[in-house]
Design brief:
- The protein is an alpha+beta fold.
- Helices cover 48% and strands 8% of the residues.
- It contains 27 helices and 21 strands.
- It has a four-stranded antiparallel sheet with strand order 5-6-4-9. A three-stranded antiparallel sheet has the order 2-1-20, with no helix packed on it. The chain has a two-stranded antiparallel sheet with strand order 3-21.
- 36% of the residues are buried.
Length: 970
């Protein structure tokens, strides 16, 4: 049965004052100033305070004392009250709304997500071990929990005797409706006000083909589609609220509670150290062991409590299992359970994987074309021909330990190079430049659709500027007036900011220089061990093996071992730098969480870009380019001769380097992501409960035993995928199968990430995000750079341009054939002109070599022969080829960039359907709010016209039979 409160008053100038009163009772008063004073007493802190302090008084069934207005946890800004005189009360009649929880006092199950009364939901859990000898921690907890209660939160403690180790206390936290309503307004959380009446006009072509990949409708769309508007307590009857318990989903509830926890102080009011606040500092100093929201059920079974949604079980069953690899992801359920930030990551990862399918198919076709056209590979046939390649003597690739060798010994390397260095490579490089643009443009459209569907259209990242990081608030002692909000806020002085940025920049530069030094060391290793491999493997038994003997060459052994060493160095430096990057970012004291993530993102990406790609850049653009020629070689450190490419080119070595680093990183990443959390949880379970223990293994205790999903958990996931994106775009011209490897990895990656998130980690704190943030700009930058790198790889790393120049200009018979290309591409050197330090040692030359018969050797270059007036200078053909290479780079870049610009112009970032829906929703919000205000004013006028006494304020109250909530007095 609903009660009713009537407040009758007269207002000067017909002004209206709206007050939020929750489940209150007050007898009739003669004067309105007493009511206003009482309102001021219960409103808590001023508007410039970080937390809104809630007060609760015990409700008396008989009405209680005049001075004890029974109001539960409400917030009214005192500044709003001060604008009105003490006689500015108005006449209102408002029906009461049913109580949020009732009077159910039944005991809740300890494996549920409710308090002992079985009604109040556990929104957050804090765990700690009570150390009797540490009074400081006890004092911190006491003050912190007292301040949480003042903020309106409700607490319940589980004694340590109920825990598995008989040492751990669990503090359960519940946010009542008043707290949720107050902070939902502060955080601008959107609430439904009307069912979406716009029909879905999207029709998928050939819908029946995609049915096997679909999930059930109740999994894909767990909640109806509504038009929404930011929550406002003063307009609570404007929104569609069927049940206040389910109005805010658990992800929103735990986000609100964490917002309060991160800003609540743990000092006494008279304490001078005002920077002691926030759950993060309490976790760091050991006051609390952990802080986490609860999962709603076990992942392998539904909750026995009908009030629990069991969304975790649904996610595990329909999303986290490997057998679901071909199914679409339930993005709406992911967003509902984990929040928009995690949801947008999996949406991006799924879309990236879908687009990889097309790149993988085209890359596979290009690779197959290289296999099929092997019979047309005349230059490889010439190298392998015993009459041609067996008669061409090659100059030594290194000093002392390397003798002369015949060209046909590189037959296998030449065949391997043709698999990736063919006409299809040029087409694939151009295709990938366009594919990157299509991927980014279509992702922007998908992101815009998600923004609308997930109520993120009006959510601006700038709104988070008002939500300062607790660390920033505590470490910045200075205060100044904000020109926009006209409130005092903490700030970091310019001098301190510059000093911190300089130290941070110097640290990043030092670590990048350290990477360059390590890469230089690997290059020196390659130069030093090549001669050793050549000497050792010359008479090695492996060379006589039938199947693999021809594959095991000094070049291959050097490249593989150097790549493995480089990969090991990459992983070690990466492990060390992660901690350094976090330390220097913390030292900079970013103002907001968004700024913190963006700064850390740029530092980590810049470092890993150099770390992972520097060795590939060396092989692609520097190796073999500054060698010199026989008789006048260039040396590193004055001792080690610069590395040369195989006569088949450096492309196969770039492919080897790319495969080892890319595949090694993916395998190691999957092991680290899946195996490490599982091993940690398994090891922790060994210390779990004894099966004979009859105590209940509570849900909060089970979640406490899981791994913590850190605030930077998604950061590392993004970083891993963006580095992979670089491998398949920057150097894809050297390895067309890279997208196929990435596709196979990502199909597994989606399910592994889902599995570990649902089974191995505690439930993360939900947070909002409308995009992938700074990663999108990084992807755009890599897309532009990939066009340039692939153009240079085709021009300077592969032999495509020299072959085309020979075919159309220097072919002696003027026929469309590549016959004679190998002999044309090799210059002649007189062996007698070799300097003594360049002469191979005795015994290094093969048995067939006779210096009295063989007077010349060949090397890879375009130079005049000995005896020519310009001997050993570059020929005109070299300059023709160089001009052709530069022309190809310019043409390819202009063509690809032109297509990219055209495609970006043709594909709008926001679909027209989404634009129409956004406009429709904004129109409805304005219309409904206007009608709401007009109707409210009409009710006020009709009520005021029935009273004629301006001198007195009369309050008529009728007490409800049950506990009820009055959300607003109009």
């Amino acid at each position: 049965m609903q009660g009713q409160i009537q407040i009758i008053a007269k207002e000067k100038g017909r002004k209206r004052l709206g007050l939020s009163i929750i489940s209150g009772f007050s007898p009739v008063r003669e004067k309105g100033d007493i009511c206003i004073d009482r309102m001021k007493r219960i409103t808590g802190k001023m508007k410039d305070e970080t937390l809104i302090e809630m007060q609760s008084t015990t409700e008396s069934p008989n009405g209680g004392d005049d001075n004890d207005l029974s109001l539960n946890s409400i917030s009214v800004k005192e500044s709003e009250l001060s604008e009105h005189s003490k006689s500015d009360l108005v006449v209102e009649t408002v029906p009461l709304i049913s109580s949020l929880s009732g009077n159910n006092t039944s005991q809740g199950s300890k494996d549920s997500v409710f308090f002992r009364d079985g009604v109040r939901r556990i929104d957050f859990v804090l765990a700690y071990v009570d150390d009797k000898n540490d009074e400081r921690k006890q004092e911190r907890r006491k003050e912190y929990e007292a301040n949480l209660i003042k903020a309106g939160l409700e607490l319940e403690t589980e004694d340590k005797s109920e825990s598995e180790d008989s040492k751990t206390y669990f503090l359960k936290i519940h946010a009542p409706w008043e707290v949720l309503a107050t902070y939902a307004e502060v955080l601008k959380i959107k609430v439904p006000f009307k069912v979406n009446d716009i029909p879905n006009t999207r029709d998928t072509p050939l819908e029946w083909l995609f049915r096997p990949f679909r999930l059930p409708e109740h999994i894909m769309n767990p909640v109806p589609d509504y038009f929404t508007s930011p929550f406002n307590k003063e307009k609570i009857d404007f929104f569609l609220i069927s049940d206040k318990e389910t109005l805010f989903p658990p992800s929103t509830r735990n986000r609100i509670v964490y917002y309060i926890l991160s800003r609540c102080a743990y000092y006494k009011e008279d304490h001078k150290d005002k920077d002691k606040k926030g759950i993060k500092r309490l976790l760091n100093n050991g006051t609390y062991q952990s802080a986490f929201p609860l999962h709603d059920s076990r992942y392998w079974m539904k909750s026995r409590n009908s009030k629990c949604e069991s969304e975790r079980y649904n996610l595990y069953k329909n999303w986290a299992q490997i057998s679901c690899f071909y199914k679409e992801q339930p993005l709406n359920l992911i967003r509902k359970y984990y929040g928009e930030k995690i949801g947008i990551y999996f949406a991006w990862l799924g879309f990236y994987t879908e687009m990889l399918f097309f790149a993988a198919v085209v890359g596979l076709i290009c690779f197959i074309s290289g296999v099929v056209t092997y019979d047309d590979n005349i230059w490889s046939k010439e190298i392998c021909d015993s009459n041609i390649g067996g008669s061409i003597v090659m100059c030594p690739l290194c000093d002392k330990k390397c003798g002369f060798w015949k060209l046909n010994s590189t037959c296998t390397a030449s065949w391997q190079s043709h698999l990736f260095d063919n006409v299809g490579t040029v087409f694939f490089a151009i295709f990938m430049g366009i594919w990157v643009t299509l991927f980014l443009e279509f992702w922007k459209r998908r992101q815009a659709r998600l923004e609308y569907e997930w109520d993120l259209v009006d959510f601006e990242e700038e709104q988070q500027q008002l939500q300062l990081r607790p660390e920033y608030e505590t470490k910045c002692s200075g205060r100044r007036m904000n020109r926009i909000t006209q409130e005092m806020e903490p700030y970091l002085s310019v001098t301190s900011k510059c000093a911190r940025c300089c130290l941070s920049g110097a640290t990043v530069i030092f670590w990048i220089a350290l990477i360059c030094a390590c890469i230089t060391g690997v290059i020196a290793y390659r130069l030093a061990v090549y001669a050793a491999f050549a000497s050792i493997m010359k008479d090695s038994p492996t060379s006589k093996l039938q199947l693999v003997g021809s594959l095991i060459t000094p070049q291959l052994a050097t490249s593989v071992t150097a790549s493995c060493i480089n990969f090991a160095i990459i992983m070690i430096l990466n492990f060390m730098y992660e901690r350094v990057a976090i330390w220097i970012t913390d030292m900079e004291i970013p103002k907001t969480h968004l700024e913190y993530e963006n700064r850390l993102t740029m530092k980590m990406f810049l470092f890993q870009f150099v770390n992972y790609y520097s060795s590939c850049f060396y092989v692609a653009f520097f190796k073999g380019k500054f060698v010199g020629h026989p008789g006048d070689y260039n040396y590193m450190f004055g001792k080690l001769r610069n590395e040369e490419c195989d006569p088949g080119g450096c492309l196969i070595e770039l492919t080897t380097q790319l495969v080892i680093v890319m595949v090694g990183k993916q395998v190691w990443g999957n092991i680290q992501e899946a195996l490490v959390p599982w091993m940690c949880n398994w090891w922790g379970s060994r210390k779990g409960r004894n099966p004979s223990d009859k105590r209940v293994y509570c849900s909060w205790e089970q979640d406490h035993d899981l791994q913590n999903f850190s605030q930077l958990g998604l950061f590392y996931e993004y970083l891993e995928m963006v580095i992979q994106f670089g491998f398949i775009t920057l150097f894809v011209a050297s390895f067309p199968l890279a997208p196929l490897l990435a596709l196979c990895n990502n199909i597994l990656e989606v399910r592994v990430d889902a599995w570990k998130l649902t089974t191995q980690f505690r439930r993360p704190m939900a947070s909002k995000a409308r995009s992938i943030g700074a990663w999108l700009e990084i992807l755009n930058g890599m897309a532009v750079l990939s066009v340039i790198t692939n153009a240079f790889i085709v021009s300077f790393t592969s032999d495509m341009i020299p072959r085309l120049v020979y075919l159309y200009v220097y072919q002696p018979n003027k026929s469309a054939t590549m016959e004679g290309y190998i002999s044309n591409s090799l210059s002649v050197f007189n062996i007698s002109e070799l300097r003594p330090e360049h002469q191979p040692e005795d015994g290094e030359n093969p048995a067939w070599f006779n210096s009295s018969v063989i007077t010349t050797c060949r090397y890879r270059d375009y130079r005049y022969a000995s005896g020519h007036e310009k001997q050993y200078f570059h020929t005109m053909q070299f300059w023709h080829i160089l001009a052709a290479k530069l022309a190809f780079i310019i043409i390819m870049e202009h063509v690809v960039f032109g297509v990219k610009v055209f495609v970006a112009w043709m594909i709008p970032d926001v679909p027209s359907e989404v634009k129409a829906r956004v406009k429709r929703e904004r129109y409805l919000v304005q219309e409904y709010l206007h009608n709401y205000e007009v109707e409210k004013l009409r009710v006020q006028l009709s009520q005021l016209n029935g009273y004629h006494s301006p001198e007195h304020t009369t309050v008529i109250c009728t007490l409800a039979e049950t506990t009820e909530v009055l959300p607003e007095c109009l």
